[in-house]
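Weekend entry, working from home. Most of the wet-lab plans are on hold until the incubator is repaired, so I used the time to fold the two sequences that have been sitting in the queue since the last round of cloning. Logging both here for the record. First:
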Amino acid sequence: MREPLDPEMFDPVCPSEVMPIRVGDKWGGMIIQCLEEGPRRFSELMVPLRTVTPKVLTKSLRALERDGFVVRTERAGPRHVEYALTPLGRSLLDLLDAARAWAETHMDALLDAREAAQ
């Protein structure tokens, strides 16, 4: 049995839209991070991604599936669908970790530059 996803795994005040490196869309990198420990159901993904709408999460998952990063598997039974990383998706984990570390180090400069440009 997998551990449940931590509802606080993404800081709600972290402005993910300032992340200079993205996979797919605003939510792609966070979805990939949620799938790092193994397959997850849609409802499990909604826990830490609490501000995403179901419609947008569906769109993001489909885009990640189209790009070969995620695989969608339907299990027998009543609507049991899981999403998991493919080897290609798993290959992004180190890159995303490096991008996240870089953004944490440079977040103030990024925010200052964007504010100055307005």
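Second, folded right after the first finished:
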Amino acid sequence: MKIIKSVADLRHERMKQTHKTIGFVPTMGYLHEGHISLLEKAKMECDWVVLSIFVNPLQFGPNEDFTLYPRDEARDLAIAKKIGIDLVFVPGVEEMYPEESLTRVNVRQVTERLCGAKRPGHFDGVATVVTKLFHMVQPDRAYFGMKDVQQVAVITQMVKDLHFPTTIVPCPTIREADGLAKSSRNVYLNQVERVQATILHQSLTEVEQRVQTGALQTASEMVTYVTEKIKSQPLAHIDYVEALTYPRFETFDQWEQEDILLAVAVFFGRTRLIDNHLIRFKGGETYV
């Protein structure tokens, strides 16, 4: 496994990989089972796999502390080596942004709700850094977890609109045995918060059962059901609960037999957790 810190060295190594299928998993490090599942899928499907570890300052808002984001590079590299990753790109901020960047990549519509509304500029930062990484790595396939469903939608739209020769591979959310989605932020939960946080997955999956039986038929009914279930946990403070069409993230009233995304963001203490559930009308992968 090669560990590369410069863009020039990354491009040099990439140029050697002729006639190979290139897989790419971009991360901000502090790897957990969700990231590992992406890396393992990339290893199965591609000849040469690149992992990037970069905490991107462009995705942090003015009230979000970039310096406090969890980091453990040595542990991440040990995980990557065990999986058999071919190259790990670990650039510093000065390597990715050697001078003030005057360019931002903005994807409209799918960034205007959910976390995009709550964290202005966040997805511009995501789209910008992924664009840079795609230009550097030139992957055939890039792997993203559906826990961050809005990120998947943003990157998929960006790749389509800008004609990147890269296939975006959405992968299922990896969960604890009790349903809590794996996340780097889970380490901040105390024991009581951790138990109460299981209400997120529970409430979202219950909605699908009621939608399929006709007990819930409108977006407002779906949102009300999830909201009341989450409020039953005293430590939960809701940031948002929304029901939208997928993948365009449009509002709707009556369910008209289309794919629906139920998405939540909830604080337990100071820890903000996100989760979602995709209701597929015509079947197919739900990524839950």
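Plan for Monday: verify the second prediction. The first strand starts at residue 2 and ends at 4.
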